[in-house]
Every structure is written in structure tokens, then in C-alpha cells.
């Protein structure tokens, strides 16, 4: 039996996700009115749409900064999009500011896994292999690979959950980037960041 989807439900879902009205209505219908399931469907589709947009040129954007209250840590970030119109929107600027705050707190080393030099990967893998040397031989590669994956989650910005986890329900920076891309309809790229700390 089809669940009756009210206009209020669609509007509420749209406000929470930034997705289009028809997308929200279809997701709610597919999820039999289950809001959490509908959000999940929209997020998956948003990331799929964002991936399609990934090829488009992102030549506009913003540079934002964050200085920690103790004046000991400062961050600059460059976030790119496709049009000047989106670059000036409050959502886009707020996202850039949140990324700067996150970088100050989480101190990532790289933006994406593609930025991690192969030499660094191999060095970490060798360390993890040595740490697993006392384990049975057949499980050592799996242990080392697992530890490498965890290391990449810790040092790669896009893999990190936002430091304000409660506000963002544990979502990663990549998930937040994909949501903004879905909401704006544009390719959103975290180009680079610079983190400065007194004494570093």
C-alpha cells in the first residue's frame, strides 16, 4: 500500500537536505515515508550527481581563514566552485569557514588520498608490517592494510569526520562537500589549505 506523502513532509525533507522538491517526494515515496531512509537515499544520489559534476571546471571560489581563540593556530583554505554566484552564497562561505575551523583542530596533512605521496604510503605500510610481525603470517598483510586505511582516515582531510561531530552527525568532510555540491548543483572542490601553528 502506497504511503501518503504530505507537502509538509516534502518541505521538511527539503529544508534538511537542500534537495529539489520532486527528489524529496520521490525519496519519501521510495522510503515508504521513513525520513531517515529518504535522507540516506538523497545523500547517495547527491554524491552520485556530484561525481558526475566532478569533471566540470571549478574556477571560481573563496579563500577563508580561521584563527583559534588562543591566537596560536591559524588556517587559510581555498574552496572552488563553478560560478561567482555560488561562491558568494552564505552556504558556500559557511562551508569554507567550517573547513578552516576543522583544519585548525584536526591538523590533516593532505586534502585527498590522491595527494598522499607513494613514498609516505609505503613508509607507513612498512611500519605497520613491522608492528604486525608477532602475529600469524597469514593475517599480517590484512592487519597492515587495516592500519594503513586507519592512518589515511586520520591524515586525509576528506576522510576525516568533522570535528564538530554532534553538529554534523559524524559525517566526513567528503560527505559534507558532496552535500553542498548536490545542493548548489555545482562541482565543489577543496583545493588546498595552509595551517600555521606557533612553534611548529
Write a short abstract of this structure.
With 200 residues, the protein is of the alpha+beta class. Helix content is 54%, strand content 13%. A three-stranded antiparallel β-sheet has the order 1-2-3.
Explain what you see:
This protein has 200 residues and is α+β, with helices and mostly antiparallel strands. The chain has three domains: 7-53, Helicase, Ruva Protein, domain 3 (Orthogonal Bundle); 60-112 and 156-197, Tetrahydropterin Synthase, Chain A (2-Layer Sandwich); 117-154, GTP Cyclohydrolase I, Chain A, domain 1, CATH 1.10.286. It is 54% helix and 13% strand. The protein has helices at residues 7-17, 21-30, 35-53, 84-87, 90-106, 118-131, 140-155, 165-168, 173-184; strands at residues 60-67, 73-81, 189-197. The chain has a three-stranded antiparallel sheet. β1 (60-67) and β2 form a beta hairpin. α1 crosses α3 and α5 packs antiparallel against α9 (173-184). The chain starts with 6 loop residues before the first helix and ends with a strand.
Amino acid at each position: 500500500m502506497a504511503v501518503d506523502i504530505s507537502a509538509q513532509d516534502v518541505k521538511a525533507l527539503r529544508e534538511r537536505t537542500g534537495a529539489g522538491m520532486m527528489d524529496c517526494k520521490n525519496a519519501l515515496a521510495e522510503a515508504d515515508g521513513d525520513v531517515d531512509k529518504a535522507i540516506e537515499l538523497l545523500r547517495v544520489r547527491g554524491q552520485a550527481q556530484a561525481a558526475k559534476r566532478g569533471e566540470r571546471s571549478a574556477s571560481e571560489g573563496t579563500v577563508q581563514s580561521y584563527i583559534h581563540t588562543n591566537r596560536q593556530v591559524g588556517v587559510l583554505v581555498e574552496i572552488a566552485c563553478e560560478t561567482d554566484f555560488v561562491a558568494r552564497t552564505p552556504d558556500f562561505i559557511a562551508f569554507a569557514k567550517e573547513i578552516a575551523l576543522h583544519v585548525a583542530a584536526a591538523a590533516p596533512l593532505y586534502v585527498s588520498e590522491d595527494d598522499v605521496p607513494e613514498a609516505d604510503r609505503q613508509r607507513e605500510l612498512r611500519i605497520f608490517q613491522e608492528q604486525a610481525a608477532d602475529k600469524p603470517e597469514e593475517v599480517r598483510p590484512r592487519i597492515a592494510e587495516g592500519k594503513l586505511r586507519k592512518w589515511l582516515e586520520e591524515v586525509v582531510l576528506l576522510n576525516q569526520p568533522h570535528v564538530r561531530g554532534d553538529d554534523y552527525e559524524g559525517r566526513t568532510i567528503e560527505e559534507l562537500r558532496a552535500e553542498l555540491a548536490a545542493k548548489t548543483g555545482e562541482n565543489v572542490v577543496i583545493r588546498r589549505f595552509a595551517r600555521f601553528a606557533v612553534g611548529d
